Amino acid sequence: MDIWLLIVGMALITFAMRFSLFAFPELRFPPLVRQGLHFVPTAVLSAIVLPGMLIPDGQQWAFNLHNAYLLAGLATIAIAALTRHLLATIGGGLLVFFILRGLLGQLPL
Question: Which of 26, 57, 69, 83 has its CA at a distance of 20 to 30 angstroms from the CA of residue 12?
Fold first, then answer.
């Protein structure tokens, strides 16, 4: 029961926050808040991706050359910096990842 109460509470808070932006269209954020909100997508994406790259098994840090997730992530960052093209970054990153997984013998068969 506690889990359902938590889920409903989180849903209500999320709805209230998002609805408030539509309910009060004249609401304007100060420049400092708008500047801070500009960095939210980068921070959220980093919080999701980095643990998968650095702790792929969910247990141990993996800073080594046998970690295909880390190597492919670094290659993807390089591709993004060089090309500035979203599709090239996604495709190149996936290609590097699967090639590394194949070379390291980590592909599920």
Answer: 26
